[in-house]
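Fig. S4 source data, part A: sequence.
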Amino acid sequence: MKFLADRNLGKLTKWLRILGYDAVIWHGEIGRSFLREGARQGRVVLTRRRDMAERNYLGTMLVIYGDKMPQQLTEVIGAYSLDVNTAHILTICLHCNETLRSISRTDVEDRVPPYVFQTQQKFRICTNCGQIFWAGTHRDNVCSYLRQHNLIDHP
């Protein structure tokens, strides 16, 4: 499932990416062009603008009512029965929205801090921006946050 979110949902967009979902932010005006682009790309349109629900739109749209990101994420997960699978966490570049691919340790030795190279075994790279990712404590922190907000039951 792919998402197009209005610019008021930046944190939600980031968390959808963290969970492994293709999610982009629309920086233009929230109106017909926003809806047309969502339909053209086959994306679920996410917006905070309640008046958008009154628009005649043939695509899929969800008006987000929650003010805080955990509530917003719960709304999206519930509305589309999203699979919050820990195996998919941090598999999308948080900057580019591209799927990360595995890269060997030897290929990143000169591109990551020495401590990271010594303590981590698995690395991923964004084929678009070239950023290197590793689990570190980020994955544990993400899982802890999701458990704290009752979005997952296990690590």
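Fig. S4 source data, part B ends here. The chain has a mean pLDDT of 92.
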